[in-house]
Specification:
The complex is a heterodimer of chains A (87) and B (474). Chain A is built from no helices and 5 strands. Chain A has 87 residues and is mainly beta. A 5-stranded mixed β-barrel of chain A has the order 1-2-3-5-4. The relative contact order of chain A is 0.28. With 474 residues, chain B is of the alpha+beta class. Helices cover 26% and strands 24% of the residues of chain B. Chain B has 13 helices and 23 strands. In chain B, the strands form 5 sheets. In chain B, strands 5, 6, 7, 8, 9, 10, 11, 14 and 17 form a 9-stranded antiparallel beta sheet that branches. In chain B, strands 19-20-21-23-22 form a 5-stranded mixed beta sheet, sandwiched between helices. In chain B, strands 1-2-3-18 form a 4-stranded mixed beta sheet, with helices on both faces. In chain B, a hairpin with a 6-residue loop joins strand 12 and strand 13. In chain B, helix 4 crosses helix 7 and helix 4 crosses helix 8. Chain B is globular and about 80 Å long. The chains are: A mainly beta (87), B alpha+beta (474). At the A-B interface, loops of A face strand 9, strand 16 and helix 11 of B.
Chain lengths: 87, 474
Amino acid sequence: MAKEYDTFVDDISTLKEGEEITIAVRETDIYKTRVVKAIVSSSKEKLPEGEVMWMRYNRGYLRPEPWFIKINQDVPGLLGKKAIGDN
Amino acid sequence: MAFKDLREFIEALEKEKQLVRVKREVDWNLEAGAIIRRAYELEERATLFEKVKDAPGVRMMGGPIGTYSRMALAMGMSADTSVKEIANEFDRRVSNPIKPMLVSKGPCKENILKGDDIDLFKFGAPMAHDGDGGRYISTWAFITTRDLEDTGWVNWGMYRQMIHTKNTLGGLILPGQDIGRMYQKYEKANKPMPFATVIGADPLATVGGSLSAGPGECEADLAGGLRKEPIEMVKCETVDLEVPAHAELIIEGHVLPKVRVEEGPFGEYTGFRTSPRAPRPVYEVTCITHRNNPILTVSNMGTPVDEADIVMTLCWRNEAMRAVKSLPVVEVAMPAYGSGHMVVVSVERAYSGVAIHVANAIWGSKLGYLVPFVVVVDKDVDVHNLGEVVHAISTKCHPVRGVHSRPNTPGHALMPFLDFEERLWGRAANLLLDCTWPVGWDPNIEIPPKASFGNIFPKEIQEKVVANWENYGF
């Protein structure tokens, strides 16, 4: 079975389509976090070799339509982010 | 005698018909979580899943203390003990702490995994709710950490941990929590904070992890008091910490300073998945030790009543009792359906403003950032009876004079009623509902008589009715 991925984002306009980005995704078979350099697209036609990537809002709600991801390479470690607020 | 370990407790639950053994394979991906959640909502028994998908040799226990009956059994009391009796016995025991005892070996060392052998995914950690940020291995577990300064302070606390990779975890650490205060010191010194996660300790040791001893004091001593005997502890393999020798699974490592990776969201104890995915601290694992055929304990928190509601009823009530001990307080309760956000206090009508005094004492304690709602009632109201409390609120609380709201109080990211900005910075608000008759009201002229059987009939009529109850045909 083809691997599927998901990622969390509230504002999908922040995801740049068609150019290589670094993104943290989860492999949905065991929910392992993986940081990758990849091309993402909202359209299968624009990224025919892409694998399914489901999109979730940051509070967990699933968007009905998947995006697609073509992973170019893994990036070791986790994707560090700046702390927001006091947590 | 206290249960030595989780396995003895499971045997006792089975004898009391408080446990379902699930022999068919159960999927860690939502199925186990859904079963545990439904069991809470039906007030069902605890579950022991004997076969978990992708986790050979691992068992999972769901809802270990999901009812007051199981809490009573954990304390060696009868399953039908009332909440009030459980709470009062809990307070008595916690008031007599017993220090843990160091031993040289224990079953938690039956398997020791380091280096490439570490794989957090091997233990069947559940995807507890659809849409959670990951698989949470720590839902009914506690984390122990040591103060950076040489104070001897060791903290136990119950904090969630989500698996990122085979050897990293993420978690929410709030600055108001004891672990948050410790972590701030380590971060300031740019040092990793050693931790050990304890999963599947004996039931009262785990409940002890929910207590709040506060800075300088260790919950291990309170847990010993709860058990009425010391907890046997062993040294960790890779960090300078000690853990219960009979626990099922120990995860050791360090919380990295100044590193944040997106964690969450998670269906939390408030009954909502409130706090969104956000950058949070990272736990790097250096060693896992576990018993043969370990049992992963799982609390699938959500709408009441589950473990969180039950232990808050007891642990946070204990904190509230200590906060108001010098005031004219009769009884304190934290209703399970309040999800830890509400404390109800009955008082003597000793002086004007007593309700405000009580609320200030509670908000001035550590509960200040945890419990936004305080309800104060007269002593004739049974604070453990939610029906009586609702009746007092809706009949005795003046909608203007009885309501005291406070803006700009400390809160935390998991409070569902806060907006996004307020959650980020833990800015909340508090509310006192004063359901006491004003002290100045004349009892014979201004206070309405309570129209209950025990209050509005003469004693001789009450006795006559009770004596003839069956003769009336009841």
